[in-house]
Design goal:
By secondary structure, the chain is α/β, with parallel strands linked by helices. It is built from 14 helices and 15 strands. Bound molecules: NADP nicotinamide-adenine-dinucleotide phosphate. The site of NADP nicotinamide-adenine-dinucleotide phosphate has 21 residues, from helix 1. It is an enzyme of class 1 (oxidoreductase).
Length: about 475
Protein backbone atom coordinates (compact mmCIF):
# COMPACT_ATOMS: atom_id res chain seq x y z
CA UNK A 1 0.00 0.00 0.00
CA UNK A 2 1.27 3.51 -0.77
CA UNK A 3 1.84 6.21 1.86
CA UNK A 4 0.91 9.87 2.27
CA UNK A 5 2.39 12.21 4.83
CA UNK A 6 -0.03 15.07 5.48
CA UNK A 7 1.29 18.14 7.27
CA UNK A 8 -1.06 20.61 8.98
CA UNK A 9 0.85 23.83 9.57
CA UNK A 10 2.59 23.52 6.21
CA UNK A 11 3.70 27.15 6.11
CA UNK A 12 5.21 27.02 9.63
CA UNK A 13 8.68 26.95 11.09
CA UNK A 14 8.79 23.29 12.16
CA UNK A 15 7.72 22.14 8.70
CA UNK A 16 10.47 23.99 6.86
CA UNK A 17 13.20 23.57 9.48
CA UNK A 18 12.69 19.95 10.51
CA UNK A 19 9.94 17.96 8.81
CA UNK A 20 10.66 18.55 5.13
CA UNK A 21 14.47 18.33 5.50
CA UNK A 22 14.06 15.03 7.38
CA UNK A 23 11.66 13.60 4.79
CA UNK A 24 13.91 14.76 1.96
CA UNK A 25 17.00 13.15 3.49
CA UNK A 26 15.07 9.92 4.06
CA UNK A 27 14.01 10.01 0.41
CA UNK A 28 17.55 10.69 -0.74
CA UNK A 29 18.80 7.68 1.22
CA UNK A 30 16.06 5.55 -0.31
CA UNK A 31 14.42 4.97 3.08
CA UNK A 32 10.98 6.45 2.42
CA UNK A 33 8.46 3.85 1.30
CA UNK A 34 8.39 3.95 -2.51
CA UNK A 35 6.04 6.60 -3.89
CA UNK A 36 5.44 8.39 -0.56
CA UNK A 37 3.60 11.66 -1.13
CA UNK A 38 3.78 14.79 1.04
CA UNK A 39 0.67 16.93 1.22
CA UNK A 40 0.69 20.23 3.11
CA UNK A 41 -2.15 22.36 4.38
CA UNK A 42 -2.32 25.78 6.05
CA UNK A 43 -4.27 28.97 5.41
CA UNK A 44 -1.56 30.73 3.40
CA UNK A 45 -2.31 30.64 -0.33
CA UNK A 46 0.33 28.62 -2.21
CA UNK A 47 0.06 26.64 -5.40
CA UNK A 48 1.72 23.20 -5.45
CA UNK A 49 4.63 24.80 -7.29
CA UNK A 50 5.07 27.83 -5.09
CA UNK A 51 5.07 25.66 -1.93
CA UNK A 52 7.64 23.34 -3.53
CA UNK A 53 9.80 26.31 -4.52
CA UNK A 54 9.71 27.74 -0.98
CA UNK A 55 10.55 24.35 0.52
CA UNK A 56 13.43 23.89 -1.88
CA UNK A 57 15.05 27.06 -0.60
CA UNK A 58 14.60 26.22 3.09
CA UNK A 59 15.62 22.59 2.64
CA UNK A 60 18.77 23.69 0.86
CA UNK A 61 19.48 26.01 3.76
CA UNK A 62 18.84 23.39 6.48
CA UNK A 63 20.50 20.39 4.85
CA UNK A 64 23.58 22.29 3.60
CA UNK A 65 26.06 20.10 1.74
CA UNK A 66 23.70 17.13 1.77
CA UNK A 67 21.32 18.89 -0.64
CA UNK A 68 21.37 17.61 -4.23
CA UNK A 69 19.40 18.99 -7.13
CA UNK A 70 18.55 15.61 -8.66
CA UNK A 71 17.30 13.86 -5.53
CA UNK A 72 15.31 16.99 -4.62
CA UNK A 73 13.51 17.00 -8.00
CA UNK A 74 12.54 13.36 -7.52
CA UNK A 75 11.30 14.06 -3.98
CA UNK A 76 9.53 17.32 -4.92
CA UNK A 77 7.50 15.58 -7.63
CA UNK A 78 5.51 13.96 -4.80
CA UNK A 79 4.77 17.22 -2.92
CA UNK A 80 1.31 18.84 -3.02
CA UNK A 81 -0.38 21.72 -1.23
CA UNK A 82 -3.95 22.51 -0.29
CA UNK A 83 -4.72 25.95 1.17
CA UNK A 84 -7.29 25.77 3.95
CA UNK A 85 -8.32 26.28 7.54
CA UNK A 86 -8.16 23.08 9.55
CA UNK A 87 -11.06 24.17 11.73
CA UNK A 88 -13.40 24.33 8.70
CA UNK A 89 -15.09 21.16 7.53
CA UNK A 90 -15.37 22.29 3.90
CA UNK A 91 -11.60 22.88 3.76
CA UNK A 92 -10.91 19.37 5.04
CA UNK A 93 -13.32 17.99 2.50
CA UNK A 94 -11.29 19.82 -0.15
CA UNK A 95 -8.13 18.23 1.25
CA UNK A 96 -9.80 14.82 1.15
CA UNK A 97 -10.62 15.27 -2.52
CA UNK A 98 -6.99 16.19 -3.27
CA UNK A 99 -5.70 13.19 -1.28
CA UNK A 100 -7.98 10.78 -3.13
CA UNK A 101 -6.94 12.27 -6.45
CA UNK A 102 -3.18 12.01 -5.84
CA UNK A 103 -3.38 8.61 -4.14
CA UNK A 104 -5.58 7.04 -6.81
CA UNK A 105 -6.42 4.10 -4.50
CA UNK A 106 -6.03 2.84 -0.95
CA UNK A 107 -3.14 4.42 0.96
CA UNK A 108 -1.85 4.66 4.51
CA UNK A 109 -1.74 8.18 5.88
CA UNK A 110 0.08 10.03 8.61
CA UNK A 111 -1.50 13.32 9.69
CA UNK A 112 1.10 15.52 11.36
CA UNK A 113 -0.25 18.37 13.52
CA UNK A 114 2.50 20.96 13.25
CA UNK A 115 0.29 23.75 14.54
CA UNK A 116 -0.37 25.50 17.83
CA UNK A 117 -1.69 22.99 20.41
CA UNK A 118 -4.87 25.05 20.92
CA UNK A 119 -5.92 23.89 17.43
CA UNK A 120 -5.44 20.15 18.12
CA UNK A 121 -8.97 19.36 19.25
CA UNK A 122 -10.61 21.33 16.43
CA UNK A 123 -8.33 19.64 13.88
CA UNK A 124 -8.99 16.17 15.29
CA UNK A 125 -12.76 16.77 15.31
CA UNK A 126 -12.72 17.90 11.69
CA UNK A 127 -10.56 14.96 10.66
CA UNK A 128 -13.23 12.73 12.19
CA UNK A 129 -16.15 14.68 10.76
CA UNK A 130 -14.74 14.75 7.21
CA UNK A 131 -14.09 10.99 7.15
CA UNK A 132 -10.32 11.56 6.91
CA UNK A 133 -9.79 9.47 10.06
CA UNK A 134 -11.70 6.50 8.66
CA UNK A 135 -9.37 3.50 9.06
CA UNK A 136 -11.06 1.28 6.47
CA UNK A 137 -9.16 2.49 3.39
CA UNK A 138 -5.76 2.09 5.08
CA UNK A 139 -4.22 3.05 8.41
CA UNK A 140 -4.75 6.68 9.49
CA UNK A 141 -2.18 7.77 12.06
CA UNK A 142 -1.91 11.09 13.81
CA UNK A 143 1.28 12.69 15.12
CA UNK A 144 1.03 15.28 17.88
CA UNK A 145 3.81 17.68 18.79
CA UNK A 146 4.39 18.57 22.43
CA UNK A 147 3.03 20.04 24.66
CA UNK A 148 0.49 17.28 25.35
CA UNK A 149 -1.73 19.39 27.56
CA UNK A 150 -0.89 22.07 30.08
CA UNK A 151 -1.48 19.91 33.15
CA UNK A 152 -3.03 16.55 34.02
CA UNK A 153 -6.63 17.55 33.39
CA UNK A 154 -5.95 19.18 30.01
CA UNK A 155 -3.78 16.19 29.02
CA UNK A 156 -6.62 13.81 29.94
CA UNK A 157 -9.03 15.91 27.90
CA UNK A 158 -6.71 15.95 24.89
CA UNK A 159 -6.29 12.17 25.14
CA UNK A 160 -10.07 11.72 25.25
CA UNK A 161 -10.52 14.10 22.30
CA UNK A 162 -7.97 12.30 20.17
CA UNK A 163 -9.12 8.80 21.16
CA UNK A 164 -12.69 9.67 20.18
CA UNK A 165 -11.46 9.87 16.58
CA UNK A 166 -8.21 7.83 16.44
CA UNK A 167 -7.61 4.53 18.27
CA UNK A 168 -4.67 4.85 20.68
CA UNK A 169 -2.43 2.60 18.59
CA UNK A 170 -2.69 5.13 15.75
CA UNK A 171 -1.70 8.10 17.97
CA UNK A 172 1.97 9.14 17.87
CA UNK A 173 3.03 11.72 20.47
CA UNK A 174 6.44 12.87 19.46
CA UNK A 175 9.32 13.65 21.83
CA UNK A 176 12.33 14.21 19.61
CA UNK A 177 14.69 13.17 22.41
CA UNK A 178 13.62 9.57 21.82
CA UNK A 179 14.74 9.86 18.19
CA UNK A 180 18.30 10.58 19.23
CA UNK A 181 20.83 7.85 18.61
CA UNK A 182 22.35 8.03 22.11
CA UNK A 183 18.99 7.55 23.77
CA UNK A 184 18.30 4.47 21.67
CA UNK A 185 21.89 3.38 22.20
CA UNK A 186 21.24 3.44 25.93
CA UNK A 187 18.81 0.57 25.38
CA UNK A 188 21.30 -1.22 23.14
CA UNK A 189 24.09 -0.71 25.63
CA UNK A 190 22.02 -1.99 28.53
CA UNK A 191 20.28 -4.88 26.81
CA UNK A 192 22.77 -6.01 24.14
CA UNK A 193 25.84 -6.19 26.42
CA UNK A 194 25.90 -8.51 29.35
CA UNK A 195 28.45 -6.45 31.30
CA UNK A 196 26.31 -3.41 32.13
CA UNK A 197 22.99 -4.82 33.24
CA UNK A 198 24.31 -6.76 36.27
CA UNK A 199 25.79 -3.47 37.57
CA UNK A 200 22.76 -1.32 36.71
CA UNK A 201 21.09 -1.26 40.11
CA UNK A 202 21.15 -0.16 43.73
CA UNK A 203 24.02 -2.50 44.59
CA UNK A 204 26.52 -0.57 42.47
CA UNK A 205 25.00 2.80 41.61
CA UNK A 206 25.12 5.64 44.13
CA UNK A 207 22.87 7.99 42.19
CA UNK A 208 21.87 9.14 38.69
CA UNK A 209 22.00 12.71 37.36
CA UNK A 210 20.06 13.85 34.32
CA UNK A 211 20.88 17.35 33.11
CA UNK A 212 19.31 19.26 30.23
CA UNK A 213 21.17 22.58 30.19
CA UNK A 214 20.44 25.36 27.73
CA UNK A 215 22.86 28.21 27.26
CA UNK A 216 20.22 30.40 25.66
CA UNK A 217 17.79 32.54 27.61
CA UNK A 218 14.10 32.85 26.69
CA UNK A 219 14.58 35.71 24.22
CA UNK A 220 11.46 36.32 22.15
CA UNK A 221 9.59 33.33 23.59
CA UNK A 222 9.01 35.17 26.90
CA UNK A 223 5.22 35.36 26.55
CA UNK A 224 4.88 31.61 26.00
CA UNK A 225 7.59 30.64 28.45
CA UNK A 226 6.21 32.62 31.35
CA UNK A 227 2.97 30.60 31.19
CA UNK A 228 4.86 27.32 30.95
CA UNK A 229 8.04 27.46 33.07
CA UNK A 230 10.79 24.89 33.09
CA UNK A 231 8.79 22.01 34.58
CA UNK A 232 6.22 22.01 31.80
CA UNK A 233 8.73 22.91 29.10
CA UNK A 234 11.38 20.30 29.92
CA UNK A 235 10.60 17.94 32.80
CA UNK A 236 7.15 16.61 31.96
CA UNK A 237 8.47 15.38 28.62
CA UNK A 238 12.22 15.23 27.95
CA UNK A 239 13.66 14.67 31.44
CA UNK A 240 11.08 12.09 32.46
CA UNK A 241 11.57 10.32 29.11
CA UNK A 242 15.30 10.09 29.80
CA UNK A 243 14.63 8.86 33.31
CA UNK A 244 12.30 6.15 32.00
CA UNK A 245 14.81 4.89 29.45
CA UNK A 246 17.55 4.83 32.09
CA UNK A 247 15.52 3.06 34.76
CA UNK A 248 13.21 0.70 32.81
CA UNK A 249 13.44 -3.08 32.84
CA UNK A 250 14.13 -4.98 29.65
CA UNK A 251 10.97 -5.53 27.63
CA UNK A 252 10.42 -9.10 26.42
CA UNK A 253 10.54 -7.88 22.81
CA UNK A 254 11.26 -4.53 21.13
CA UNK A 255 7.58 -4.04 20.50
CA UNK A 256 5.79 -0.69 20.90
CA UNK A 257 3.50 -1.72 23.72
CA UNK A 258 6.03 -3.87 25.53
CA UNK A 259 8.60 -1.05 25.53
CA UNK A 260 6.01 1.44 26.71
CA UNK A 261 4.66 -0.91 29.38
CA UNK A 262 8.13 -1.01 30.93
CA UNK A 263 8.48 2.78 30.75
CA UNK A 264 5.10 3.26 32.38
CA UNK A 265 6.14 0.98 35.28
CA UNK A 266 9.00 3.38 36.04
CA UNK A 267 6.62 6.33 36.34
CA UNK A 268 4.32 4.23 38.50
CA UNK A 269 7.29 3.54 40.82
CA UNK A 270 8.19 7.18 41.39
CA UNK A 271 7.50 8.02 45.02
CA UNK A 272 4.73 10.62 45.40
CA UNK A 273 5.68 13.63 47.51
CA UNK A 274 3.73 15.61 50.09
CA UNK A 275 4.00 19.42 49.95
CA UNK A 276 6.60 19.33 52.75
CA UNK A 277 8.65 16.81 50.79
CA UNK A 278 8.33 18.88 47.63
CA UNK A 279 9.73 21.85 49.52
CA UNK A 280 12.77 19.74 50.51
CA UNK A 281 13.25 17.63 47.41
CA UNK A 282 12.98 20.34 44.77
CA UNK A 283 14.80 23.55 44.00
CA UNK A 284 13.63 26.45 41.86
CA UNK A 285 15.51 29.31 40.25
CA UNK A 286 15.15 32.20 37.84
CA UNK A 287 17.99 33.82 35.93
CA UNK A 288 18.74 37.46 36.61
CA UNK A 289 17.29 39.57 33.83
CA UNK A 290 14.40 37.19 33.08
CA UNK A 291 11.82 39.73 34.29
CA UNK A 292 13.14 42.26 31.78
CA UNK A 293 12.58 39.87 28.82
CA UNK A 294 9.91 40.81 26.28
CA UNK A 295 6.48 39.47 27.32
CA UNK A 296 7.53 38.62 30.90
CA UNK A 297 5.77 40.42 33.80
CA UNK A 298 8.06 42.51 36.00
CA UNK A 299 7.11 40.43 39.07
CA UNK A 300 7.17 37.01 37.38
CA UNK A 301 7.70 34.02 39.69
CA UNK A 302 8.17 31.61 36.80
CA UNK A 303 11.11 29.20 37.14
CA UNK A 304 13.77 29.07 34.46
CA UNK A 305 15.74 26.48 36.45
CA UNK A 306 14.64 23.48 38.47
CA UNK A 307 16.28 20.56 40.21
CA UNK A 308 14.36 17.58 41.57
CA UNK A 309 15.37 14.55 43.58
CA UNK A 310 13.10 11.64 42.64
CA UNK A 311 13.04 8.14 44.10
CA UNK A 312 12.11 5.10 42.03
CA UNK A 313 10.68 2.68 44.56
CA UNK A 314 11.25 -0.76 43.10
CA UNK A 315 13.67 -3.67 43.63
CA UNK A 316 16.26 -2.32 41.21
CA UNK A 317 16.40 1.30 42.35
CA UNK A 318 15.33 1.42 45.97
CA UNK A 319 17.49 3.99 47.77
CA UNK A 320 19.10 5.39 44.58
CA UNK A 321 18.19 9.06 44.05
CA UNK A 322 17.60 10.37 40.55
CA UNK A 323 18.64 14.01 40.33
CA UNK A 324 17.01 15.85 37.45
CA UNK A 325 17.85 19.44 36.55
CA UNK A 326 17.29 21.78 33.68
CA UNK A 327 17.69 25.47 33.14
CA UNK A 328 18.07 28.32 30.74
CA UNK A 329 21.01 30.68 30.88
CA UNK A 330 23.31 27.84 31.94
CA UNK A 331 27.02 27.49 31.32
CA UNK A 332 26.63 25.62 28.00
CA UNK A 333 24.20 23.56 25.98
CA UNK A 334 24.44 19.96 27.05
CA UNK A 335 22.15 17.03 27.73
CA UNK A 336 23.67 14.22 29.69
CA UNK A 337 22.82 11.27 31.88
CA UNK A 338 25.42 10.48 34.51
CA UNK A 339 25.46 7.10 36.22
CA UNK A 340 27.53 7.64 39.33
CA UNK A 341 28.83 4.34 40.66
CA UNK A 342 29.45 3.82 44.38
CA UNK A 343 32.84 4.06 46.01
CA UNK A 344 34.73 0.77 46.28
CA UNK A 345 33.98 -0.77 49.69
CA UNK A 346 37.60 -0.67 50.79
CA UNK A 347 40.35 1.82 49.92
CA UNK A 348 43.49 -0.07 49.06
CA UNK A 349 45.58 2.66 47.59
CA UNK A 350 47.04 5.53 49.50
CA UNK A 351 45.16 8.60 48.24
CA UNK A 352 46.53 12.10 48.62
CA UNK A 353 43.16 13.48 47.58
CA UNK A 354 39.60 12.14 47.53
CA UNK A 355 39.29 9.33 45.00
CA UNK A 356 36.50 9.76 42.49
CA UNK A 357 34.42 6.66 41.84
CA UNK A 358 33.55 5.25 38.44
CA UNK A 359 31.12 7.19 36.33
CA UNK A 360 29.34 6.58 33.04
CA UNK A 361 28.37 9.74 31.16
CA UNK A 362 25.91 9.41 28.30
CA UNK A 363 25.97 12.57 26.27
CA UNK A 364 22.84 13.17 24.23
CA UNK A 365 23.75 16.57 22.83
CA UNK A 366 25.60 18.36 21.36
CA UNK A 367 27.92 15.48 20.37
CA UNK A 368 26.39 12.05 20.86
CA UNK A 369 28.24 9.27 22.59
CA UNK A 370 29.37 8.05 25.97
CA UNK A 371 32.30 8.26 28.28
CA UNK A 372 33.23 5.76 30.93
CA UNK A 373 35.34 7.39 33.63
CA UNK A 374 37.47 4.90 35.50
CA UNK A 375 40.38 5.01 37.92
CA UNK A 376 43.78 4.22 36.44
CA UNK A 377 47.25 4.23 37.84
CA UNK A 378 49.33 7.35 37.24
CA UNK A 379 52.66 6.13 35.82
CA UNK A 380 55.77 6.73 37.87
CA UNK A 381 53.78 8.04 40.85
CA UNK A 382 53.72 5.01 43.14
CA UNK A 383 50.13 3.72 43.38
CA UNK A 384 48.51 7.06 42.79
CA UNK A 385 45.27 6.87 40.78
CA UNK A 386 43.50 9.29 38.49
CA UNK A 387 40.13 9.44 36.75
CA UNK A 388 40.64 8.56 33.09
CA UNK A 389 38.07 8.67 30.28
CA UNK A 390 37.20 5.91 27.81
CA UNK A 391 35.27 7.57 25.01
CA UNK A 392 32.83 6.40 22.37
CA UNK A 393 31.68 9.01 19.87
CA UNK A 394 29.10 8.08 17.26
CA UNK A 395 30.48 10.47 14.66
CA UNK A 396 34.00 9.08 14.99
CA UNK A 397 33.06 5.43 15.02
CA UNK A 398 30.51 5.45 12.21
CA UNK A 399 30.80 6.87 8.73
CA UNK A 400 28.45 9.65 7.67
CA UNK A 401 26.75 12.33 9.70
CA UNK A 402 24.37 11.64 12.54
CA UNK A 403 20.75 11.73 11.36
CA UNK A 404 18.49 14.31 12.93
CA UNK A 405 16.04 12.71 15.40
CA UNK A 406 13.10 13.60 13.16
CA UNK A 407 14.31 11.25 10.41
CA UNK A 408 13.98 8.20 12.62
CA UNK A 409 10.69 9.30 14.14
CA UNK A 410 8.94 10.30 10.91
CA UNK A 411 9.96 7.02 9.29
CA UNK A 412 8.68 5.07 12.30
CA UNK A 413 5.36 6.93 12.09
CA UNK A 414 5.08 6.10 8.37
CA UNK A 415 5.89 2.45 9.05
CA UNK A 416 3.55 2.18 12.02
CA UNK A 417 6.13 1.62 14.75
CA UNK A 418 5.14 3.57 17.88
CA UNK A 419 7.91 2.26 20.19
CA UNK A 420 9.61 5.66 20.39
CA UNK A 421 6.42 7.69 20.89
CA UNK A 422 4.61 8.48 24.14
CA UNK A 423 1.42 6.60 24.96
CA UNK A 424 -1.55 8.30 26.66
CA UNK A 425 -1.00 6.63 30.06
CA UNK A 426 2.68 7.64 29.97
CA UNK A 427 1.76 11.29 29.36
CA UNK A 428 -0.84 11.29 32.13
CA UNK A 429 1.46 9.61 34.64
CA UNK A 430 4.18 12.14 33.84
CA UNK A 431 1.75 14.98 34.52
CA UNK A 432 0.75 13.21 37.73
CA UNK A 433 4.36 13.62 38.88
CA UNK A 434 4.86 17.20 37.70
CA UNK A 435 1.45 18.70 38.55
CA UNK A 436 1.75 18.42 42.38
CA UNK A 437 5.18 20.09 42.22
CA UNK A 438 3.78 22.99 40.18
CA UNK A 439 0.84 23.29 42.58
CA UNK A 440 3.12 23.43 45.63
CA UNK A 441 5.37 25.93 43.88
CA UNK A 442 2.34 28.16 43.38
CA UNK A 443 1.24 27.82 47.04
CA UNK A 444 2.32 29.33 50.36
CA UNK A 445 4.59 26.27 50.86
CA UNK A 446 6.65 27.04 47.76
CA UNK A 447 10.40 26.76 48.28
CA UNK A 448 12.26 30.03 47.75
CA UNK A 449 12.85 31.15 44.15
CA UNK A 450 16.63 31.59 43.88
CA UNK A 451 17.99 34.11 41.41
CA UNK A 452 21.08 33.10 39.46
CA UNK A 453 23.52 34.75 37.16
CA UNK A 454 23.30 33.49 33.56
CA UNK A 455 26.35 31.68 32.23
CA UNK A 456 26.92 29.26 35.11
CA UNK A 457 25.12 26.15 36.42
CA UNK A 458 22.03 27.72 37.99
CA UNK A 459 21.69 29.01 41.56
CA UNK A 460 24.52 28.43 44.06
CA UNK A 461 21.93 26.91 46.37
CA UNK A 462 21.71 23.99 43.98
CA UNK A 463 25.31 23.07 44.85
CA UNK A 464 24.62 23.51 48.56
CA UNK A 465 21.56 21.28 48.24
CA UNK A 466 23.64 18.54 46.62
CA UNK A 467 26.36 18.96 49.24
CA UNK A 468 23.77 18.44 51.99
CA UNK A 469 23.11 15.06 50.36
CA UNK A 470 26.84 14.33 50.30
CA UNK A 471 26.99 14.62 46.51
CA UNK A 472 27.94 17.09 43.83
CA UNK A 473 26.71 17.97 40.37
CA UNK A 474 28.74 16.79 37.42
CA UNK A 475 29.27 20.23 35.89
CA UNK A 476 31.25 19.46 32.79
CA UNK A 477 30.59 21.21 29.52
CA UNK A 478 30.25 18.66 27.30
CA UNK A 479 32.62 15.76 27.89
CA UNK A 480 32.59 14.82 24.20
CA UNK A 481 33.08 17.12 21.22
N1 LIG B 1 9.45 25.13 15.62
C1 LIG B 1 10.03 24.20 16.33
O1 LIG B 1 11.24 23.99 16.30
C2 LIG B 1 9.21 23.30 17.24
C3 LIG B 1 9.88 22.41 18.06
C4 LIG B 1 9.14 21.54 18.88
C5 LIG B 1 7.76 21.59 18.86
N2 LIG B 1 7.11 22.48 18.06
C6 LIG B 1 5.65 22.46 18.03
O2 LIG B 1 5.25 22.31 16.67
C7 LIG B 1 4.05 23.00 16.42
C8 LIG B 1 4.28 23.99 15.29
O3 LIG B 1 5.29 24.91 15.65
P1 LIG B 1 5.87 25.99 14.64
O4 LIG B 1 7.02 26.60 15.32
O5 LIG B 1 6.05 25.41 13.29
O6 LIG B 1 4.67 27.07 14.59
P2 LIG B 1 4.39 28.19 13.50
O7 LIG B 1 5.62 28.55 12.74
O8 LIG B 1 3.62 29.25 14.21
O9 LIG B 1 3.41 27.45 12.50
C9 LIG B 1 2.06 27.23 12.76
C10 LIG B 1 1.39 26.73 11.49
O10 LIG B 1 0.02 26.51 11.74
C11 LIG B 1 -0.72 27.07 10.64
N3 LIG B 1 -2.06 27.41 11.08
C12 LIG B 1 -2.40 28.26 12.08
N4 LIG B 1 -3.76 28.31 12.18
C13 LIG B 1 -4.24 27.47 11.24
C14 LIG B 1 -5.55 27.09 10.84
N5 LIG B 1 -6.64 27.56 11.47
N6 LIG B 1 -5.69 26.22 9.83
C15 LIG B 1 -4.60 25.72 9.19
N7 LIG B 1 -3.34 26.03 9.52
C16 LIG B 1 -3.17 26.90 10.53
C17 LIG B 1 0.10 28.26 10.22
O11 LIG B 1 -0.10 28.60 8.88
P3 LIG B 1 -1.12 29.70 8.31
O12 LIG B 1 -0.98 30.93 9.13
O13 LIG B 1 -0.64 29.83 6.91
O14 LIG B 1 -2.46 29.08 8.41
C18 LIG B 1 1.51 27.70 10.33
O15 LIG B 1 1.81 26.94 9.18
C19 LIG B 1 3.67 23.65 17.75
O16 LIG B 1 2.81 22.78 18.43
C20 LIG B 1 4.99 23.73 18.51
O17 LIG B 1 4.77 23.71 19.90
C21 LIG B 1 7.83 23.34 17.24
Amino acid sequence: MSHTFVIFGASGDLTSRKLIPALYLLSKKGRLPEGTRIVGMSRTEFSHDSWRAGLKKTTEEFTGKKFEEESWSKFAAGIYYHPGDLTKLEDLQGLKALLEEVEGGPAERVYYLSTAPRLYTAAIDQLGESGLANQEEGARRIVLEKPFGYDLSTAEKLNKDVNRVFPEKQVYRIDHYLGKETVQNLLVMRFANSIFEPLWNRNYIDHVQITVAEEVVVGRRGGYYDQAGVLRDMFQNHLLQLLMVTAMESPVRFDADMVRDEKVKVLQSIRPMSSDEIARETLRGQYEGYRQEEGVPADSQTETFAALRLWVDNWRWNGVPFYLRSGKGMSCRTTQIVIQYSQPPHTLFDQKAHMDSCRLVMQIQPAEGLQMQIQTKVPDEGMMTRTTPLDFRFCKEFQGEMPDAYQRLLLDALQGDASLFARSDEVELAWGIIDPIIQTWRSAQAPKLHLYEPGFWGPDQSNDWMAEHGRQWFDVCPVLH
